[in-house]
Amino acid sequence: MTETDRPEPDVDVVVVGAGIAGLYLIYRLSRAGYRLRVFEAADDLGGTWYWNRYPGARVDVPSIDYMYSFDPDWQRDWQWSEKYARQPEILRYLNHVADKHDLRRHLTFSTRVRQAGWDDDASLWRVRTDRGDDVTARFVVMATGCLSVPKQTEIDGLERFTGEVYFTSRWPHDPVDFTGKRVAVIGTGSSGVQSIPIIAQEARQVVVFQRTPTFSIPAHNGQLSPERLAQFAANEADYRSAARMSPGGIPMERSITPTFSVTETEREQRYERAWEIGELFEAINVYADVMSNPAANHEFAEFFRNKIRAIVDDPQTATDLCPTDYPVATKRPCLDTNYYATYNLPHVRLVNIRKHPIRQVTETGIDTTDESFTFDAIVFATGFDAVTGAITEVDIRGRNGLALKDKWANGPQTYLGLTTAGFPNLFLITGPGSPSVLSNMAVSIEQHVDWVLDCLGHLCARGFAVIEPTETAETGWTQHVSDCADITLFPAANSWYMGANVPGKPRVFLPYCAGVDFYRASCDEVVAHDYLGFTLSGRGGTECNDGVVRRLQPDVEMVLNRMAAMNLPTMESMPVEDARAFYNQMSAVRPPGPDVGEIVDGTLPGTSGALAYRLYRPPTTPGPRPIIVYFHGGGWVVGDAISDDPLCRDLCVRSDAIVISADYRHAPEHRFPAAVDDAMAAVRWVADNAEALGGIPGLLAVCGWNAGGGLAAVVCRLARDMGGPNIIGQALLTPSTDGDMARASFTDNADGYGLTTALVRWLYDHYIDIADRRDPRFAPLRATDLSGLPPAIVVTAEFDPVRDDGDAYAIALEAAGVPTEHVRARGHTHKSVTMVDVAISGAPVRARIAKALRQFFAATRTPEPAS
Ligand code: N01
Fold this sequence. Notes:
By secondary structure, the chain is of the alpha/beta class.
């Protein structure tokens, strides 16, 4: 079918859902002149705020932030009555916006979209509803919300119960009166925490059935402070703009202070302040590492537990209310009003169903394994099939009839959380893989809708009719979303963020956790790069700038951004002495790395004078340990025996071996082969003195990073050829292995990733004459025979100029029959794997190095029996 033959669709856009997202879509689409239909299953607008009418339902983001920003004139006709508005007030606000901007006329209520199928020939969607509508549209936008499909009850016997049954997520419109009634509440997430104190004000008896306790902080709700209002009103545009560029969608600086960099007293005060302020985003931003460092998180969690113990009178109830089996904030924390204190009321009781599981609902109440309860009403506050549930509930079929539900059977794959490959012209507002539920939804919704409108405008202006993400872009984004989660503690909890609350749902972290600011930058970058990762087609032909928008590990990118913002001079622009001082200065601000058992500084005899070394002993039981001789990085020019201190500590602890970081003479004062001679001397001295150093004679491995990785490789070959010492393993971290700088990585990664090709050249020039650069004592890759070398682990980094040299060396070792583990550190730079406690994504790589070293030692301790 040609463009001109294609049937004209009934409308340009079908929108599913009339919550906050649906209403803003109507506002933008209608003003831009698009023809649209908007279907809403409820009989009125409001989405979440239509359905969740349970007692105590409130927003948990300050109301002043949880509202549209598109109407700068709003203050003339709307004022929030409280810091955290109640559900009826929020619903009134949404109705007010709809009326003010005449949005209602586009809405079709009481109509559920059942099916949406992509007709590839006609390039349009066919949308069917439960009321018999059959509408064709060029685009479908799912504005179905993240928490709109209630979870099944999963409790036997509910149909037998003769009393009243309520779901917080489907609360009746008529008032529910619990006065004098015996009420059960099942579930202690945000809905339970908000409703329990209010229900307890009326009911004769309340029994709360708790499976997992929650962390909750007091909302300290009340009037909006006039000062804050005045400050906000004076500069609303700046305020909103700060929210858009913030980590969570509320104006706030991202904390960069690590927990343990300040005193215990200061930390206690900071935690108290967060408790007093009563804002969720503020609470999880107390310190930079609360969501990534288990020890930091544990301390903060203990602060919460102490608060619970202080509020709740009965010690057993207090213990049951204290969460202990997941890190704080890895399940959505709650904001409450008198939640914990409610358990001090004589008619309120907590049943810990982990200890006393519910067996069934009976005609008259609930049976646990050891008690029968009688109730007049049961309230289910058991949550939602979150983030994906409302999207996959619609039978969405893309190209070739592919069902979205099937495509996402192992977890959602999206590009930017906005689109998904195989489903052209389909947009998801706050879909999986976007900040959504981890952010202020109002800000995220506006950003998504604005992006979609810009996209539609672009298609129209350029004569394109269809847009679809590529597999490459989607795979890259899905990987990035998962990388972001992996450097946090989020995956440690069985949360609805992980899909863990719904039996059978794949365990995948659903939202994007790097922040609204980083996310927005990605979306903007995609557009700036001609819709990077999208295929656009239509009258204007077909255009595709394929690619991945985020390839660096998120924490590595953050470090690089920070460095770039500092606008530092390059080392190669400095005299050597200044470069060394600069290098030391940069090293001084690193986190120290883990504690080791003991550190001893000493000297050893080099080829021409004493060389410094630092010995790290593991913090384990006394007794001899294997030894790793470590050679530092710094390109033969900068660095010394202590310049890789955090890495050496980490290596020592992880491998349970003594690490001896040995210095060597540096260029340009001492050019090639001085460093090699010293490295060789150091290994010999350590081997000769292993016992005195606390080592196990014979269990000696070498390790090095950068130039040191090259030296470690060279030493292994020299030791083989010179009859010793016996080295049983080599761990080479982004090693320098060749001298001609000819491989592609020197061009691909020439600049922007820390180590630059220009700096490599500067270092080489200081160290070695061009004529010598094929000497295998500088370029181990140039050795004619690599057979018989000790087993190796070679780590290369994706964004490193010397990457391809390292890859080539790993391949050459394998080809020579040397057992070699080759680790390609995805998304890492030359240095990032060494950044202990800074680039958390490097930790698994260092764990693999340590594991390999342990295996080298274990294999030597218990040699394979001869066959
Ligand atoms: O749902 P939840 P929610 N037997 O999933 C328990 C937002 N929200 O409606 O943790 C017994 O958090 C379940 O136990 P477990 C907010 O983002 C915001 O409360 O799975 N118990 C849990 O305790 C929030 O996070 C506000 O072990 C069962 C509870 O039920 C999200 O919506 C207000 C069970 C469910 O908690 C969802 O909150 C309300 C079973 N079979 C909601 N199944 C604001 O303040 C589940 N549970 C704006």
